[in-house]
Structures are given as structure tokens and as C-alpha cells.
């Protein structure tokens, strides 16, 4: 896992094998989100629209947005609200403004009740319009509306008077007549230019006439994040953190999970793999922590290949007998072997005990030079490995489970075997599998024979 690319299949395997843990953590995350929503009260947001008549450039609209949330407007809004202890600085985090299509600025206010939010948005829009009209420097609204109209009417009357004078002037070709008509034509042209300037000035003046487009509607729902959003966010965040935690732990985990890696670390060959029913391995692990691990589904590894469903007891015994047959073929002469099991590896301990039982009940055990080697089991601590000295044993058979030990720990175990005068003659990898349907196992006359192996001690004490 540490060298593999993370794929969707890996995430899917985490969901399949850790579904109970993920479900529990998802519920915890939902409860945390719900608790967070109880700490922070609900918020409501109301918005009012302000129309900016005339032609406005984008940078001018952005300037108006900044004015809407400026300290001057906020101070005036706080004064208009008349709430005790509320000033412009307190409103800065509760209001906002943004531009929309059609020269419209939407100002918003957020409060703890819909009524207060609506009131804040309305007061903010009113004070924004009033402040914008003040900085444009215009007079009263009546004067601003009547003065251009009166001036335009005077210009129209003057232009008509000039036309009448031009018609009444002498139509002769005298110098005085020509000069009079020229002066009148220049005066008419000047008036037309003045009218154009007046219209442009009126258009620019109209930009200051901001209009509030009605009162802000009262909000009917909470502003995000709502309680439901916090619950969903807590659930998703807990699931995401669980997946990331599993992937990070797998990346940092240096325990060997494949048979070739285990064989290379111990410097020997793999004789075979055996299985241990999951219910038997669960019986070995007892206590509150073991029960919690079984309840959450963390008692099995998720980063190892999926275990094959075990057959009945007869099928499992056949696999152990085939392993004994391989030992008999490699060591035909009668000999004793030391079965080394890392201390704390419960699955390997169960597999070693079953292997000893099958070796003792081997049908050819009593035949000369054809029986399975006698086996003696010892548990060796991997932190300070110590294997009994070679006495009558002529080799060591290492039984362990995959994904439990690192390469350094297995190398130390192999070194301890060498120090005790034992050659590692083979490796057996054990793994837990779901227990299949139980059927009566086939019994042979030799099944009743006592086991030829006994359990030893890693300290080398006599057995």
C-alpha cells in the first residue's frame, strides 16, 4: 500500500470493510454539526434593491457599492435604527452590497430575527440613497427637476425670436444685411450647442438620483449555514477524515502484507497458507477493547487481499494435512522441528496449534521414515527475540499472519533462529476467514492418537 497508487477500488474497499466504523463516525459528525448549530443562533438576511438611473460604467458601480458599506452610511444607519449599543462598527459584519444586472445595487442586512433583518436592509438603503444625493451636490429635488425645464424653455423662446429677426431683416445684398443675418445665424448655432451641453449636464446630474425599489421583503428562511447544512457538513467531514486517515495510516504502515515480502524478510521459502475461522480468532481476543473492535469491524485488516470464504472443518483440515505432506517430502527422515510463532500473533498461534494437531494425527506418523516431523511450538517476542537452543530439533518452521510484522522484526526473528542453531526450513502464513457451514469432519482411526507435539517456551526451559 505504501508504494501503490490510491485508486477508487482502494476507497471502495475501505467502505466495504470499515462500514461500521464509518457509520459510527458519520453519526458522531452529524451530532457535532447539530451541536454547533445549537451554539450559534439562526441568522436571517433581507435585501433591498437600489436603482441607479442613467448610464454607469462598471468602475462607477463598484464605487457606489463601496459607498453603500462605508462608515458614513453605516453610522447614519445605526442612528436611524435607534438600537441601544449598536453603532456603525457593529453593523459592518452584518451588512453587504453587490451589483446586479441593470444598474441595480442590492444591499443586504443580517440579523437574528426576520423583522430586524428587514428593518436593517430598509434603513441601509435609505441612508445610502440620501448620502449619495448629498455628495452629488444638488439642491432640493424640486429645484433639480424645475430648473433645467425652465432654462430649456427660455432657450427655445430665444431661438424662435432669432428666427423671426432673421426673416424680418433686409433681404438685400447690402453689407449691413449680410452682417445682420450672419450674426443671427451664429447666435442660433451657439444656442443649439448650449442646448446639447445642457442635455449632457442633465444626464450627468440624473446619476445622483438613486431610487429605492420598494421595501425589503421579509426573509422566510435562515441564512446559511443552516442547521441542516451543519449536520450534513459534519457527516461528510467525518467520513472524509476517516477515509484520509485510513489512507494515511496505510501509506505510513511498513508491515509486510504479501507472501513474497515475508519470505524475503525471513530468508526462506513459503510452504503454504492456512486459514483460521473468524469465530475462533475472535474467541482468542477477549476483553472490552476486543469486543469494541469486533463491533466496529476493526478486528480485521482492510489493506490485505480479501479473504476467501473458508469451507467446513474437513476442508480446513485437508489444507493442514497437505502442509504436513510438504514437510514430510522435504524432510523424509524422522526429525523434530521447532514451530516459531511471534508473541501476540493470535491468528498464527491458532494456526500453529491446528498444525500440531494434524501432524500428530497424520496417518503415516507411525510408519518408519515416512511420518510427519514432530513439532514443538514456542512463542517468541519480536521486540527481544530469543529462540531456545537447538536440542533435538533440526530446524525451525515460522508461522505468522500477514500484515502484522515489519521487515525489521522478521529479520530479527530469523536472526534469533540462527543464534539458537536453527535453520528456517519454511514459512507458513495464516489468515482469518469467515467461517463456513460446519459439517461433521471425517474421522480416521488415527484421529484419536495423541499429539506428538507439546507447547514450549521461548526462554529455552525444558518441557
UniProtKB/TrEMBL annotation:
It holds the Pfam family Wzz. Residues 435-463 are annotated as: Disordered. Its main location: membrane. It is a multi-pass membrane protein. It is found in: Cell membrane. The chain crosses the membrane at residues 21-40. It comes from the Bacteria. Residues 6-63 form the Polysaccharide chain length determinant N-terminal domain. GO terms for cellular component: plasma membrane. The keyword Transit peptide does not apply. InterPro entries: Bact_polysacc_biosynth/exp (IPR050445), LPS_length_determ_N (IPR003856). Keywords: Cell membrane, Membrane, Transmembrane, Transmembrane helix. PANTHER family: CAPSULAR EXOPOLYSACCHARIDE FAMILY, TYROSINE-PROTEIN KINASE. Belongs to the CpsC/CapA family. This is Polysaccharide biosynthesis protein. It comes from Streptomyces tsukubensis (strain DSM 42081 / NBRC 108919 / NRRL 18488 / 9993).
